[in-house]
Amino acid sequence: MDRGATVSWYDGRVVAVQDFGFTIRVVLPISLDTGGTVRIEVWVVLDFGDSGELASELENGWRGVPARGLLLNVVEPWPEVYGAPVTFAGEPGEWLPRVTGSEHPALQRVLTEKWPVSVLALGRFWFENRVRPPAPGNSVQPVTDASALLSAFDTQARSAEWEAYPDAVQDAEVFRVAWDHRRGFVSGPPNLRLAGAELDAVIARQRDFFAARGQAVEWKTWGHDRPADLPERLEAAGFVSEGRETVLVGLAEEMAGPVDLEDGIVLRETREEADLHRLATTATEVFERDSSWLADYLLEKKDDPNTVVVIAEADGQVVSSARLEIVPGTEFGGLWGGGTLERWRGKGIYRALVAHRARVALERGVKYLQVDASEDSRPILERLGFVVVTTTTGYVWKP
To answer: Which of 129, 171, 269, 307 is the most buried (most CB within 10 A)?
Structure first.
């Protein structure tokens, strides 16, 4: 776009440019011969009638109303589709609409044929089927765009929330995990493909299962999930929000730099039972809720090489702790914990814990670090270079 153009409106989806019109971000779906789909985000200049009609669609959520425009991107490896006319539409609850057809023969062929993965092996796009790490010496360049990072997280790491547990039970599109020593867990893929009474019934079954156990349960949701009314239906079934957190993803190599700590503050990795109970006590004070379960959880993972626990000690006390949980078979590691006692904040401990875990991640071949951040942590992480990709909210039901 011309650097001298006057942008009068931008909301993350639509750019309104004076004397040019509206352009909108749209998903261009590419089918693979492996059965997966590539989602490429492109810009389309709108032929949408008056702007009031567009504003109504954005305000009320996509209602399946088709729109037309011209493709403004060069899409490799099909540069000839630049400027092609497209038709696009969105489903209710979708943030971005998707291209549904084109009168341009080349673009229509792109949309309807199934393509080999090798066509898109430049590492610029992420796939909706699970992506495995490339072979050594044949690594693709890491992605840094927010939408690409979110796609990578969804396809690689997100399902680890339930796949890591062999006793997880699938019910329709959701997965349920029951532990003996802490509350249960329920979640699912970005699109549950459930709606209305069918979704309500699935929610009720999970609640009733844990009610029979006399056990609380968390249903974890993400801000870009479908259907969009899942949170409201959870609340109607008696689940209560524990508050929204921001999901950020960053490159491990950018987070691994040295951090100077004040004298007397020491970071070390540990698997010792006494240390795990000490860090659980500190976490209870930091987060102002019972975190005694954390010691049992980490003891269960004591021999798991993909779980790395780091504590910060000062004056003989655990003043902060954090852990790295590497997602096997992916390029992702999750950063968890990171709570610091109040009087020890502002001394670089949080940044040092991030850097330490980033170095470990790089040694293990992990490219991306993911965090579910509180509002206290989010600004620090953004300054370090993490990118906001979505939000997450846990809804809890208690007997």
So the answer is: 307
